[in-house]
Specification:
- The chain has helices at residues 41-58, 97-105, 114-125, 185-188, 190-202, 210-215, 223-231, 235-259, 269-273, 275-288, 291-296, 308-319; strands spanning 4-10, 14-21, 27-34, 66-73, 76-78, 83-87, 92-96, 109-113, 134-139, 143-149, 152-154, 263-267, 298-301.
- With 321 residues, the protein is α/β, with parallel strands linked by helices.
Length: 321
Protein backbone atom coordinates (compact mmCIF):
# COMPACT_ATOMS: atom_id res chain seq x y z
CA UNK A 1 0.00 0.00 0.00
CA UNK A 2 1.41 3.42 -1.02
CA UNK A 3 2.25 6.02 1.59
CA UNK A 4 1.45 9.70 1.20
CA UNK A 5 2.39 12.93 2.94
CA UNK A 6 1.54 16.61 2.69
CA UNK A 7 4.35 18.92 1.60
CA UNK A 8 4.12 22.70 2.00
CA UNK A 9 6.44 25.29 0.46
CA UNK A 10 6.12 28.62 2.31
CA UNK A 11 7.96 31.25 0.31
CA UNK A 12 8.11 35.02 0.20
CA UNK A 13 5.20 35.31 -2.26
CA UNK A 14 3.24 32.06 -2.09
CA UNK A 15 2.09 29.04 -0.14
CA UNK A 16 2.20 25.92 -2.31
CA UNK A 17 0.93 22.67 -0.80
CA UNK A 18 0.88 19.23 -2.36
CA UNK A 19 -0.10 15.68 -1.54
CA UNK A 20 2.85 13.46 -2.47
CA UNK A 21 3.44 9.75 -2.88
CA UNK A 22 6.59 9.56 -0.74
CA UNK A 23 7.75 6.32 -2.38
CA UNK A 24 7.77 7.69 -5.94
CA UNK A 25 7.73 11.48 -5.55
CA UNK A 26 4.50 11.70 -7.57
CA UNK A 27 2.45 14.84 -6.93
CA UNK A 28 -1.21 13.85 -6.63
CA UNK A 29 -2.80 17.23 -5.90
CA UNK A 30 -1.73 20.83 -5.27
CA UNK A 31 -3.18 24.07 -3.94
CA UNK A 32 -1.66 27.54 -3.92
CA UNK A 33 -2.31 30.80 -2.09
CA UNK A 34 -0.54 34.16 -2.12
CA UNK A 35 1.40 35.46 0.86
CA UNK A 36 2.40 38.98 1.71
CA UNK A 37 4.64 40.63 4.25
CA UNK A 38 1.96 42.15 6.50
CA UNK A 39 -0.29 39.06 6.66
CA UNK A 40 0.38 38.44 10.37
CA UNK A 41 0.92 35.25 12.34
CA UNK A 42 -2.71 34.17 12.81
CA UNK A 43 -3.66 34.88 9.22
CA UNK A 44 -0.59 33.02 7.95
CA UNK A 45 -1.48 29.92 9.99
CA UNK A 46 -5.12 30.14 8.84
CA UNK A 47 -4.15 30.50 5.18
CA UNK A 48 -1.78 27.53 5.36
CA UNK A 49 -4.39 25.41 7.19
CA UNK A 50 -6.96 26.15 4.47
CA UNK A 51 -4.45 25.27 1.73
CA UNK A 52 -3.64 21.91 3.34
CA UNK A 53 -7.32 21.05 3.79
CA UNK A 54 -7.92 21.79 0.11
CA UNK A 55 -5.28 19.40 -1.19
CA UNK A 56 -6.35 16.62 1.19
CA UNK A 57 -9.93 17.03 -0.02
CA UNK A 58 -8.81 17.10 -3.67
CA UNK A 59 -6.89 13.84 -3.57
CA UNK A 60 -8.82 10.66 -4.20
CA UNK A 61 -7.10 8.54 -1.54
CA UNK A 62 -7.85 7.12 1.90
CA UNK A 63 -6.84 9.83 4.37
CA UNK A 64 -5.61 7.11 6.73
CA UNK A 65 -2.68 6.63 4.34
CA UNK A 66 -1.41 10.19 4.91
CA UNK A 67 1.51 9.82 7.31
CA UNK A 68 2.78 13.35 8.00
CA UNK A 69 2.97 17.02 7.09
CA UNK A 70 6.26 18.63 6.08
CA UNK A 71 6.86 22.37 5.74
CA UNK A 72 9.74 24.18 4.09
CA UNK A 73 9.71 27.81 5.28
CA UNK A 74 11.70 30.76 4.00
CA UNK A 75 13.65 31.75 7.10
CA UNK A 76 15.47 30.57 10.20
CA UNK A 77 13.86 27.48 11.71
CA UNK A 78 13.92 25.47 14.91
CA UNK A 79 13.63 21.97 13.48
CA UNK A 80 13.23 20.21 16.82
CA UNK A 81 10.35 22.37 18.06
CA UNK A 82 8.81 23.04 14.63
CA UNK A 83 9.02 26.82 14.95
CA UNK A 84 9.75 29.38 12.24
CA UNK A 85 12.01 31.68 14.26
CA UNK A 86 12.22 34.54 11.77
CA UNK A 87 11.43 35.19 8.12
CA UNK A 88 12.63 38.60 6.85
CA UNK A 89 10.73 38.33 3.56
CA UNK A 90 7.49 37.47 5.41
CA UNK A 91 7.96 39.71 8.45
CA UNK A 92 7.07 36.78 10.73
CA UNK A 93 8.64 35.64 14.00
CA UNK A 94 8.15 32.55 16.17
CA UNK A 95 5.45 30.83 14.13
CA UNK A 96 4.64 27.61 16.04
CA UNK A 97 3.80 25.35 13.12
CA UNK A 98 4.19 22.04 14.95
CA UNK A 99 1.84 23.03 17.76
CA UNK A 100 -0.81 24.48 15.43
CA UNK A 101 -0.86 21.85 12.69
CA UNK A 102 -0.53 18.72 14.82
CA UNK A 103 -3.58 19.90 16.77
CA UNK A 104 -5.53 20.66 13.57
CA UNK A 105 -4.65 17.60 11.47
CA UNK A 106 -3.66 14.98 14.06
CA UNK A 107 -0.53 14.21 12.02
CA UNK A 108 3.17 14.58 12.92
CA UNK A 109 4.76 17.73 11.50
CA UNK A 110 8.37 18.31 10.45
CA UNK A 111 9.86 21.67 9.56
CA UNK A 112 12.88 22.74 7.54
CA UNK A 113 14.23 25.78 5.75
CA UNK A 114 12.60 26.14 2.33
CA UNK A 115 15.76 25.73 0.28
CA UNK A 116 17.03 22.88 2.46
CA UNK A 117 13.71 21.13 1.82
CA UNK A 118 13.81 21.78 -1.94
CA UNK A 119 17.34 20.36 -1.95
CA UNK A 120 16.00 17.19 -0.30
CA UNK A 121 13.45 16.91 -3.11
CA UNK A 122 16.11 17.25 -5.81
CA UNK A 123 18.43 14.85 -3.95
CA UNK A 124 15.88 12.02 -3.88
CA UNK A 125 13.77 12.56 -7.01
CA UNK A 126 15.45 15.26 -9.10
CA UNK A 127 18.73 16.59 -10.48
CA UNK A 128 20.72 15.56 -7.39
CA UNK A 129 20.21 11.83 -7.80
CA UNK A 130 23.54 10.00 -8.01
CA UNK A 131 25.56 12.86 -6.46
CA UNK A 132 26.90 12.91 -2.90
CA UNK A 133 28.35 16.44 -2.71
CA UNK A 134 26.39 19.24 -4.33
CA UNK A 135 24.75 22.60 -3.70
CA UNK A 136 21.25 23.72 -4.72
CA UNK A 137 20.79 27.46 -5.16
CA UNK A 138 17.33 28.99 -5.60
CA UNK A 139 16.79 32.51 -6.94
CA UNK A 140 13.45 34.00 -5.97
CA UNK A 141 12.27 36.56 -3.43
CA UNK A 142 15.72 35.99 -1.92
CA UNK A 143 18.70 33.80 -2.77
CA UNK A 144 19.16 30.65 -0.69
CA UNK A 145 21.03 27.38 -0.93
CA UNK A 146 21.02 23.84 0.39
CA UNK A 147 24.24 21.88 0.92
CA UNK A 148 24.57 18.13 0.46
CA UNK A 149 27.74 16.61 1.95
CA UNK A 150 28.49 12.88 1.77
CA UNK A 151 24.92 12.22 0.71
CA UNK A 152 23.29 14.11 3.59
CA UNK A 153 21.94 17.61 4.12
CA UNK A 154 24.51 19.74 5.94
CA UNK A 155 22.89 22.27 8.30
CA UNK A 156 25.97 23.63 10.08
CA UNK A 157 26.76 24.19 13.76
CA UNK A 158 23.67 26.33 14.41
CA UNK A 159 21.42 24.86 11.73
CA UNK A 160 21.74 27.88 9.46
CA UNK A 161 24.25 26.72 6.83
CA UNK A 162 23.49 27.57 3.22
CA UNK A 163 22.69 31.28 3.52
CA UNK A 164 24.49 32.09 0.26
CA UNK A 165 22.23 35.10 -0.21
CA UNK A 166 24.07 36.79 2.63
CA UNK A 167 27.57 36.42 1.26
CA UNK A 168 28.91 39.98 0.97
CA UNK A 169 29.57 40.76 -2.69
CA UNK A 170 29.74 44.56 -2.41
CA UNK A 171 31.17 46.09 0.80
CA UNK A 172 28.98 48.99 1.97
CA UNK A 173 26.60 48.19 -0.87
CA UNK A 174 22.83 48.03 -1.11
CA UNK A 175 20.79 47.45 2.04
CA UNK A 176 19.60 43.84 2.34
CA UNK A 177 16.43 42.64 4.05
CA UNK A 178 18.63 41.04 6.74
CA UNK A 179 19.88 44.50 7.80
CA UNK A 180 23.39 44.19 6.36
CA UNK A 181 24.76 45.96 3.31
CA UNK A 182 26.10 44.45 0.12
CA UNK A 183 24.61 40.93 0.36
CA UNK A 184 24.30 38.81 -2.78
CA UNK A 185 20.53 38.73 -2.27
CA UNK A 186 20.39 42.52 -2.64
CA UNK A 187 21.85 42.22 -6.15
CA UNK A 188 20.86 38.87 -7.65
CA UNK A 189 17.40 37.94 -6.33
CA UNK A 190 14.29 38.49 -8.44
CA UNK A 191 13.27 41.08 -5.85
CA UNK A 192 16.55 42.96 -6.37
CA UNK A 193 16.19 42.82 -10.15
CA UNK A 194 12.61 44.09 -9.88
CA UNK A 195 13.71 47.02 -7.69
CA UNK A 196 16.49 47.85 -10.13
CA UNK A 197 14.09 47.82 -13.07
CA UNK A 198 11.58 49.99 -11.22
CA UNK A 199 14.22 52.58 -10.31
CA UNK A 200 15.49 52.76 -13.89
CA UNK A 201 12.01 53.07 -15.43
CA UNK A 202 11.07 55.82 -12.96
CA UNK A 203 14.19 57.70 -14.05
CA UNK A 204 12.84 57.68 -17.60
CA UNK A 205 14.92 54.87 -19.09
CA UNK A 206 12.96 53.23 -21.94
CA UNK A 207 11.52 49.73 -21.42
CA UNK A 208 8.50 47.76 -22.56
CA UNK A 209 7.77 47.33 -18.84
CA UNK A 210 7.09 51.09 -18.51
CA UNK A 211 3.39 50.65 -19.34
CA UNK A 212 2.96 48.40 -16.29
CA UNK A 213 4.33 51.13 -14.03
CA UNK A 214 2.05 53.70 -15.64
CA UNK A 215 -0.94 51.53 -14.78
CA UNK A 216 0.33 50.67 -11.27
CA UNK A 217 3.14 52.70 -9.61
CA UNK A 218 3.68 49.81 -7.16
CA UNK A 219 4.08 47.22 -9.93
CA UNK A 220 6.84 44.67 -9.28
CA UNK A 221 7.75 42.55 -12.32
CA UNK A 222 7.61 38.80 -11.80
CA UNK A 223 9.57 36.17 -13.68
CA UNK A 224 6.96 36.01 -16.46
CA UNK A 225 7.24 39.78 -17.07
CA UNK A 226 11.03 39.61 -17.12
CA UNK A 227 10.89 36.71 -19.59
CA UNK A 228 8.52 38.66 -21.81
CA UNK A 229 10.85 41.66 -21.80
CA UNK A 230 13.89 39.51 -22.60
CA UNK A 231 12.05 37.74 -25.43
CA UNK A 232 11.17 41.16 -26.87
CA UNK A 233 14.81 42.27 -26.72
CA UNK A 234 14.24 44.90 -24.02
CA UNK A 235 17.64 46.52 -23.48
CA UNK A 236 17.04 47.72 -19.92
CA UNK A 237 15.85 44.31 -18.71
CA UNK A 238 18.75 42.60 -20.49
CA UNK A 239 21.27 44.89 -18.80
CA UNK A 240 19.70 44.37 -15.38
CA UNK A 241 19.91 40.59 -15.83
CA UNK A 242 23.52 40.81 -16.98
CA UNK A 243 24.35 42.75 -13.81
CA UNK A 244 22.49 40.23 -11.61
CA UNK A 245 24.17 37.30 -13.37
CA UNK A 246 27.56 38.87 -12.71
CA UNK A 247 26.87 39.05 -8.98
CA UNK A 248 25.25 35.60 -8.78
CA UNK A 249 28.16 33.98 -10.62
CA UNK A 250 30.54 35.74 -8.24
CA UNK A 251 28.76 34.23 -5.24
CA UNK A 252 28.61 30.78 -6.86
CA UNK A 253 32.31 30.88 -7.77
CA UNK A 254 33.13 31.52 -4.11
CA UNK A 255 31.09 28.45 -3.15
CA UNK A 256 32.77 26.29 -5.83
CA UNK A 257 36.27 27.42 -4.86
CA UNK A 258 35.60 26.88 -1.15
CA UNK A 259 33.49 23.71 -1.09
CA UNK A 260 34.49 22.08 -4.42
CA UNK A 261 31.13 20.32 -4.98
CA UNK A 262 30.46 17.87 -7.80
CA UNK A 263 27.48 19.87 -8.99
CA UNK A 264 25.57 23.14 -8.67
CA UNK A 265 21.80 22.90 -9.20
CA UNK A 266 20.05 26.20 -9.93
CA UNK A 267 16.33 26.75 -9.41
CA UNK A 268 13.68 29.33 -8.70
CA UNK A 269 11.18 31.05 -10.94
CA UNK A 270 13.64 33.36 -12.68
CA UNK A 271 16.14 30.59 -13.50
CA UNK A 272 13.39 28.34 -14.81
CA UNK A 273 11.64 31.06 -16.82
CA UNK A 274 14.61 32.81 -18.44
CA UNK A 275 17.14 30.53 -20.17
CA UNK A 276 19.26 33.56 -21.04
CA UNK A 277 19.82 34.25 -17.33
CA UNK A 278 20.74 30.63 -16.49
CA UNK A 279 23.13 30.32 -19.43
CA UNK A 280 24.80 33.64 -18.63
CA UNK A 281 25.29 32.70 -14.97
CA UNK A 282 26.92 29.38 -15.95
CA UNK A 283 29.20 31.06 -18.48
CA UNK A 284 30.32 33.71 -16.00
CA UNK A 285 30.70 31.15 -13.19
CA UNK A 286 33.22 29.12 -15.18
CA UNK A 287 35.41 32.18 -15.81
CA UNK A 288 35.48 33.08 -12.09
CA UNK A 289 36.25 29.66 -10.58
CA UNK A 290 39.76 28.33 -10.15
CA UNK A 291 40.76 26.31 -13.24
CA UNK A 292 40.55 22.79 -11.78
CA UNK A 293 37.06 23.04 -10.21
CA UNK A 294 35.88 25.11 -13.19
CA UNK A 295 36.68 22.23 -15.52
CA UNK A 296 34.94 19.62 -13.36
CA UNK A 297 31.90 21.38 -11.91
CA UNK A 298 28.54 20.35 -13.38
CA UNK A 299 25.74 22.92 -13.45
CA UNK A 300 22.10 22.18 -14.19
CA UNK A 301 18.61 23.45 -13.53
CA UNK A 302 16.29 21.63 -11.12
CA UNK A 303 14.30 18.70 -12.48
CA UNK A 304 11.30 19.12 -10.18
CA UNK A 305 10.88 22.86 -10.80
CA UNK A 306 8.16 24.40 -8.64
CA UNK A 307 7.58 21.04 -6.97
CA UNK A 308 11.08 20.66 -5.48
CA UNK A 309 9.93 22.19 -2.19
CA UNK A 310 6.67 20.28 -1.72
CA UNK A 311 8.24 16.94 -2.65
CA UNK A 312 11.18 17.51 -0.30
CA UNK A 313 8.89 18.66 2.50
CA UNK A 314 6.66 15.62 2.13
CA UNK A 315 9.51 13.10 2.45
CA UNK A 316 11.26 14.86 5.37
CA UNK A 317 9.56 12.85 8.10
CA UNK A 318 10.43 9.60 6.36
CA UNK A 319 14.14 10.38 5.87
CA UNK A 320 14.59 11.82 9.37
CA UNK A 321 13.54 8.56 11.05
Amino acid sequence: MSKYAVGVDLGGTKILAGLINIETGEVLATSKKRTKKDLGTENMIARMTDTIHKIIDKANIDKKNITSIGIGAAGQVNRKEGILISAPNLDCVNLEFKKAFEKEFKLPLVLGNDVEVATIGEMHFGAGRGYTNFVCVFVGTGVGSGIVHNGEIYNGATGTAGEIGHIIVQPNGRLCGCGNNGCLEAYASRTAISKRLAACVKKGMPSILAEYYQQDPLFSPRSKHIKLAIDEGDELTTNCLIEAADYLSQGLASVVNFYNPEKIILGGGLVEAVDFFFELVVKKLRTKCLPVPSNSIEVSQTELGDYSGIVGAAIMADIRK
